[in-house]
Amino acid sequence: MEYVKLILGFLLLIKGADLFVDGSSSVAKILKVPAIIIGLTVVAFGTSMPELSVSATAALKGNNDLAVSNVLGSNLFNLLVVLGCCALVQPVRAKWSLLRKEFPFSIFITLILLLLNSDFSITKVLKGDQIFVLGRYSGLLLLTLFVVFLFATVRSALRSRNEMPVDEEDYKVMSPLKSGVFIAVGLAGIIWGGDLVVDSASSIAKDFGLSQTFIGLTIVALGTSLPELVTSMVAAGKGENDLAVGNVVGSNIFNILLILGVSSVITPIKLDVTAVYDTLILVAASIIVYVAAISKHEIKKTEGVMFLLAYLAFFVYILLR
After folding, report:
1. Could you read off the pLDDT of 36-56 as tens digits, one per residue?
2. Angle at 228 between CA 88 and CA 83, to 5 degrees
3. Rounded Cα gap, residues 154 and 135, in angstroms
4. TM spans, by residue (predicted)?
5. With contact defined as beta carbons under 8 Å apart, do 77 and 218 qualify?
6. How far lies 261's CA from each of 55, 68, 144, 253, in Å?
7. Cβ(195)–Cβ(9) under 8 Å?
């Protein structure tokens, strides 16, 4: 029964996020908000709603291991599996502006997260049996960086739009009432789905004697990353694989700054040393993917296979530890 609840929760999360994006995009169009701003805010936020719902619900219920491991697992899945799968379809190219700005910023904030998760103490990490805390002040710092990032991104997008006008993206416009219904139903699905996923994942972890960290890094991370996987694979199939890289990088930034920021502000998150190790692995993976992307401005099939093998090695590592 718990597996049924888990699958139902994922379905509600994904469909809820889809309805939320459609409804919010429609309202934005009614209010004459530029399409590029919709893409950078509403759509980006919508694809991160599953992670936000799961992590915030976990924080409220005191399942903090699940909140952090969900974000770390999702970001690793995005980098290694999503980009790896896209590269198998065809070589993945990334825009120079992304490699120059957003991707380095995602590495920078991952390093910030590593420092915050380790309490700025190498000694505590080396001891290996210490408790670390991602507190409310850390959460406020992450949220502040999120606001700065969002402001800078929107300003840059508007400047680019003025310099080189592009056609409006085709966001479907519905009536105000229908848009409101889509937003309300979407949010309800996201909240209910997040609740089901947290409860069922915690129950499954207990039944099998697994830690919530393991469940969060694997099953929950995979389930909440499905929107990014589907979006990026569709983009790669259409030859628009620069969108695939942008989707992954944007989602990873949202996950760290918004989701962990909100979760740790709700309640300070206690971590063990394995969370610090996992953050360090995420830093390493981010740098490796960045080097692969910037070296020849594309990620080839061979590198895609290497990314997938690296994720498999990570999965075996967390299974055995």
Report:
1. 566 556 666 777 778 888 888
2. 25
3. 29
4. 30-47, 67-91, 103-122, 134-154, 175-194, 214-236, 248-269, 275-292, 304-320
5. no
6. 10, 11, 9, 11
7. yes
| pTM confidence score | 0.83
Tokens linked to 44: 């980006």
Residue 155 is predicted with a pLDDT of: 82
Q: Per-residue pLDDT tens for 132-159?
A: 999 999 999 999 999 999 888 878 767 7
Per DSSP, the three-state class of 132 is strand
Residues 6 or more apart whose CB falls under 8 angstroms from that of 268 comprise 133, 134, 135, 136
**Strand locations in 38-183, DSSP E?**
92-93, 132-134
Joined tokens for residue 239: 């030859």
Q: What confidence tens digit (pLDDT) does each residue in 192-236 have? A: 888 888 788 878 877 888 887 888 888 888 887 877 787 677 777
- At position 114, the amino acid (one-letter code) is L
Of 42-51, 71-80, 84-93, where does mean pLDDT reach its minimum? 42-51
Is beta strand 92-93 parallel, antiparallel or unpaired with respect to 269-271? Answer: unpaired
Torsion of CA 294, 299, 302, 307, to 10 degrees: 90
Q: Is residue 211 within 8 Å of 205, Cβ to Cβ?
A: yes
What confidence tens digit (pLDDT) does each residue in 1-20 have?
888 988 898 888 888 878 88
Quote the domain boundaries for residue 298: 2-320
> Domain holding 208: CATH number?
1.20.1420.30
> Among all chains, which residue has been given the structure tokens 């709700």?
266
Number of domains in the chain: 1
At 36, list the tokens: 């590029």
State whether the Cα torsion 40-46-50-53 is positive or negative.
Answer: positive
How many helices (H) and strands (E) the chain has is answered by 17, 4
